[in-house]
Model the fold of this input.
Amino acid sequence: MNRLLWIPLLILGLLASNCHAQNCSSHVFSNNAKFATCIRLPVLNSFLHWTYHSSNHTADIAYRQTNVTASSWVSWALNLVGKGMVGSQCLVAVPNARGGGFRAYTSPVSSYATQLAQGPLSFTVPSISAEFANQQVVIFATLVLPANGTSFTTVWQNGPMLGTTPGRHPMTGPNMVSIQTVDFATGQTTSGGGKNSRFTSVMRRRNIHGVLNAISWGILMPVGAMIARYVKVIPSADPAWFYLHAGCQFSGYVIGVAGWGTGMKLGSDSKGITFKTHRCIGITLFCLATLQLTAAFVRPHKDHKYRPLWKYFHTIVGYTTIALGITNVYKGFDALGREDTWKKAYTGVIVALGIVAVILEAITWPVVIKRKRESENKPADTGYAGNRQHTSTV
Done:
């Protein structure tokens, strides 16, 4: 009886295997093209069909990607010099600007900031075309394979269109492991992605870099400034407010330096990344924060004649650091290509801090004005001040 129970399961397994095969080698193209080999790529709902011609070392290929919207772009590429995006020689399909289907072209990728501009590849592509139907894009092309072999690293991607220009593809999940080695002569493949891939490792370090900097420059620094501005107004909070302010700022500096160092390491390990504005702001932040910390150790006494000048310098550098820090957090989100959820979450924190600051400003400002007036009127109660006032009116 138990053996009979295995029969339906075996049939279902065979049907599932057959359906998978039909989705690849048995696929019927609209132009009735036939290919000798077909593989289902591990991610992004993609398939690669090809026929290798040993006589002239060419390959007729068809790259298919399903579940594609009419406002997306797709690409497939050979990378002859590396294992990732930079250096890829791409076949790109984008929506036709005049409407009606997709068009295909070639694009060499030299940096992570590419916009997939049209250009010649390092090898010849005699023909290339694309079609779009039923949420599926197919890129047809003939490749004159490089003379150094038949096994190459292949990369494939998809992403949104920004007007008529391909936008940045997602920087998480399947889009970061869409890489595989294909031998066009034998049909053998070797996965280039996976959880232990270099891409996943880089993304993990980028995430750590982003979290460290968002917490330090983007949150702790503003909170520390708010403590110095509002908590010290409370007489009973002196000198506790100073230690809270210094502790918050110092913690932000230490965490920020760790994030800055992580970013510098990422920059040196990720050749081709050109987020120059983000990098320059980060270096400026490190310099300003280090200068601010150094100035704290040479702070003049309250009664010293240079104390007002030091206070002015401390305030200007502090608020400049905060403004640049918040700006660079957003620049970092753009560099990571994160979804809007990340920006919205951080924006929620900044808005909350802003609301708290407005409320505290409304509460403490009248107190500060009142104390200032009392301080200005206090000398008038002394005899000397009264004589000086009387003399000046004569």
The CA atoms of residues 33 and 68 lie 21 Å apart. Residues 200-381 form a domain with the Four Helix Bundle (Hemerythrin (Met), subunit A) fold (CATH 1.20.120.1770).
